[in-house]
Amino acid sequence: MVQVVCLGEVLIDFVSLESGVSLIEAPAFKKAAGGAPANVAVGLARLGHNVGFVGKVGQDSFGEFLIGILKENQVNVSGIATDADARTMLAFVSLRQDGERDFMFYRHPSADMRLTPEEIPETMVANASIFHYGSISLISEPCRSATFHALEIAKKAGVMISYDPNLRLNLWPNAETARQEILNGMRFADFMKINDDELEFLTGTRQLHDGATRLRSFGPALIVITSGSGGSYFYSDRAEGMVSGYRVQAVDTTGAGDGFVAGFLSCLLRCVKSGEPFVAPAHAELEACCRFANAVGAIATLTRGAIPALPTRAQVEEFIKHQGTVGM
Ligand code: ADP
């Protein structure tokens, strides 16, 4: 049985082979599977969980490639729909000289945006212990309604709901719509993970306690804010704390946040009681979950790309044993 269902975009990232160039200058690109919810699904599968992915790809070679990658990683792909009339989502990415990422998305519309409520595998969602989603699937219809439909099924069945908005401002019509819709998407969530930049965007503050208190008022009982190499901070009505990150020589931070979510949910699964309302675990458990998730996030920075860098449980345990050592 599928323990965790991840819903959202799965796409091809075409990553510039040269860094320090804009997309105009980039001479060649390497294809890599991407999409935050798909990365989380693979992350959880590597950690030994039974995971299903729900989304939509085009009936094209890239869609086939993505389904193949998920299958190879033991992710259940029976919830992936295919579209004969729209292509698989693509993104072209390069790291510019100033350290910022230059992004260009092909979704006019892409297949992922055309997921419909009828395509949601209701039984798989209702029988899971955790349902995880992001905000990219909330941007346009019919995918937005499909996401809310899945959220309603999960809520009704007492499935714990996890949300990582993964702000991609240039996919939204404007910043205000992005803020409103991401906050609106929170009303179903039991657990929410964001990074400190997203915290500032959503709440207007980088102050962890104040920001978390504001987010709490939108619904989630448990909020975790990640701060790159700084580690992670957790907040609930009965517990709050900061867990410092591991010291590593990061090569590529792509997928660190998704690895973190996979690690955190893997840990949280032990505390989730299916069919019962979610209660945030106590301080010690949350600290342990952040520590484990920090390790997964740190390991994800040691290798290029998101999916190739996600560790197995044995690798995380080994890393924690030699905590903080540079490299693995
Ligand atoms: P996102 O990718 O969502 O922006 P972060 O960059 O905050 O998320 O990374 C998520 C987690 O991954 C951090 O909380 C931390 O535990 C780990 N991590 C990320 N970057 C580093 C780094 N340079 N060194 C050590 N750990 C890191």
TrEMBL record:
InterPro entries: Carboh/pur_kinase_PfkB_CS (IPR002173), PfkB_Carbo_kinase (IPR050306), PfkB_dom (IPR011611), Ribo/fructo_kinase (IPR002139), Ribokinase-like (IPR029056). Residues 3-312 form the Carbohydrate kinase PfkB domain. CDD domains: bac_FRK. The keyword Zinc-finger does not apply. Pfam families: PfkB. Keywords: ATP-binding, Kinase, Nucleotide-binding, Transferase. GO terms for molecular function: ATP binding; fructokinase activity. This is JHL05D22.5 protein. Belongs to the carbohydrate kinase PfkB family. Signal peptide: none annotated. It comes from the Bacteria. One of its GO terms (biological process) is fructose metabolic process.
